[in-house]
Amino acid sequence: MRGTVSLAFGALVLLASGCSNIRDNFRPVLSDAPFIYDIGELRVIGGDELEADGFDYTSVPDALHYGQLGAGENPGLYGGATFEFRGTGRDVCVVVDPEAMFWNVEISTQEQSGYKYEDLFEDDGDLDMKAGLTAYYNGSPGIEIGDFSAVYDDAAGVEPELEFNECVQTGYGGTSPVHAGRGSVEFCDMDTSLHPGVMYTAVLETFALPIDDSVLNYGTMVFDGKCSDLPWRDANGEKGSGGTECVIPNEIQNADPGLAIPEDKAWFPELESAFCTGKGKVNTWCKDNPGAGCVEVE
Amino acid sequence: MGTTILLFALGCAYQENLPEKDIAGTVILPKAAATRTLADGSELTDPRFIGPVVLGAYSGMDTVSFGYPHPSMGPIVEPDVPGNTFPYGGTTVGRYDFACYEALACKVVTGRFKDYNDILDYFGNILGNPVTDDNGSEVAYSSTYQQACFDYFHATTDSEMAFIGGLDFTENADGDFESSFLMPHTVYVEGMTIWGWMDAPAIELANPKESGGFSSCDSLGGRQFNEYDQEFYEGRVFYDSLNTPSQYIFAGDWVANGDENAVVTLVDDGAGNMVPSNPVVRMDVGFGVEE
């Protein structure tokens, strides 16, 4: 009897410690990167500025912000960043480019028919973006992440929930609102014609941190115009063709210009540049640089 | 075995206590809503002029924001889009149904036509816009129409055609047109008001070929048909018709007045049960002729 009890107790201990180890493997590592951060006010940037010859993306921190987000001690809370901008009285496009995701699963070993390498997924984080009038934001910038929901008391005393998020993104098939997944760029048009000069808040909610280092680098800005008019660029400042991923280049290196780019991600700017130049360039680059951000298809 | 039977019995008896009721009532449209001026200058009263009647259950009425009685609405969030009315439920008396020919997409409502001839007569003889087939040729015979429908829907009986059969509206003793309605599974809120509007068909006297359409129908919605050289949408009601109705109400339409007869309360059914009252929705606020 005593032996049986000891055995059961031992099994429980092993089970508990086993569970603990498994849980730790999924927990992001704490770092110096902030869990919640308020960027402050960002200037709405125009296309003429972005398209100027030799434009340096790190030269306008008042309009184009590169930053980092990390894990929090309490896994039950959402982290993220916030910033404010003033309504222009016109359409604006709010963009955030989280690290890193380039292409997804369009893999083919056939010549000229698709990507021949898989994208490295361990470096992909995910930020979900919402934006609306600052007056409707119910979080505390720099302290607590919130959203733009409120309760409306109708004439009969029923309380339906209102949603004041104006950053509505549309997914495949026209469904909305949606969020881009796995490190993809999020962007949305916002009509500020009713509120020129009035403050808006954008929330970048940390949905997932990269599992390789638990630090999520990102770039964000507000463009003066519709998203369809955003000038796409590659990491070299050349006109790109890779879509929204190429609007805010090199978020890993630029997120902390004071530090050198991590050695294990030194390939990032060149791979991003190849991606923004075209599918064929990615295949060539991956072939010439085995293991650097590209994964061989088995 | 006995336990299983007991559980089944208990399951059937379980009351979920959902705050929902089926609201049954009457909608009344004045004779003028079914009366239109035709190309020859004559006036004709015909219940086929009654378009889809959209009904919703709302918290109350807003008599200030619009030029007609309108449900109370929440705050305006987006420019050019009115506030959400947050309806508790809704229904229609007559709905858009695809009547076999692309030329009739967004133009035929259920509960308005007895048979194929009724449709051919309405469009050809009254609106001056005869029904045409996929080649643009006029459809002259009901048998031709029937065959086209059986072919399109792979059907074998007229009972499968929802756009013909029983009629919704009948003329009452006052000369007005009335119909019963049922608003199923509506969140019951004491004192809520049943409000709605009738979308009147466009009658283009100068260009009859454009007659018969409705502003509340989304011509780029509904089932998409792609076969050989045919490519079109069957049409459907705009999905936010109940939430932002003012976007779809135009001249010629008729709007409910939102009076006390349209308010729903609980009443004793005579057997000691408290059940929703039967609201009477009178749509007597009009805006002239839609052109």
Structure commentary:
The complex is a heterodimer of chains A (298) and B (291). Chain A contains 5 helices and 12 strands. Chain A is an alpha+beta fold. Chain A has a single domain (28-296), classed as Jelly Rolls (Sandwich). In chain A, the strands form 4 sheets. Chain A has a 4-stranded mixed beta sheet with strand order 1-3-10-6, with no helix packed on it. By secondary structure, chain B is of the alpha+beta class. Chain B has one domain (18-286). In chain B, 12% of the residues lie in helices and 26% in strands. Chain B has helices spanning 2-13, 116-126, 142-153; strands at residues 20-29, 35-37, 43-45, 53-58, 61-62, 70-71, 89-93, 170-171, 177-187, 193-198, 217-218, 224-227, 230-233, 236-237, 254-255, 266-268, 274-276, 280-282, 285-286. Chain B has a 5-stranded antiparallel beta sheet, with no helix packed on it. In chain B, strand 2 (35-37) and strand 3 form a beta hairpin. The longest helix of chain B has 12 residues, at 2-13. The model of chain B has no long low-confidence stretch (mean pLDDT 92). Classes of the chains: A alpha+beta (298), B alpha+beta (291). Chain A binds chain B through residues 152, 154-158, 160, 162-164, 166, 191, 193-194, and chain B through 59-60, 72, 74-75, 77-79, 84, 86, 88, 189-192.
Number of structural domains of chain B: 1
Shape of chain A: globular
Backbone structural class of chain B: alpha+beta
Counting structural domains of chain A, the number is: 1
Mean pLDDT of chain B: 92
Secondary-structure class of chain A: alpha+beta
Spatial strand sequence of the major β-sheet of chain A: 1-3-10-6
CATH class of chain A: Mainly Beta
Backbone CA Rg of chain B:
21 Å
What CATH architecture of chain A do you see? Sandwich
**Residue share in β-strands of chain B:** 25-35%
Uncertain segments of chain B are none
Give the termini separation of chain B. Answer: 69 Å
Q: How confident overall, as mean pLDDT of chain A? A: 83
Gyration radius of chain A, in Å:
22 Å
As a percent range, the share of helical residues of chain A equals 10-25%
Largest sheet of chain B: 5 strands, antiparallel
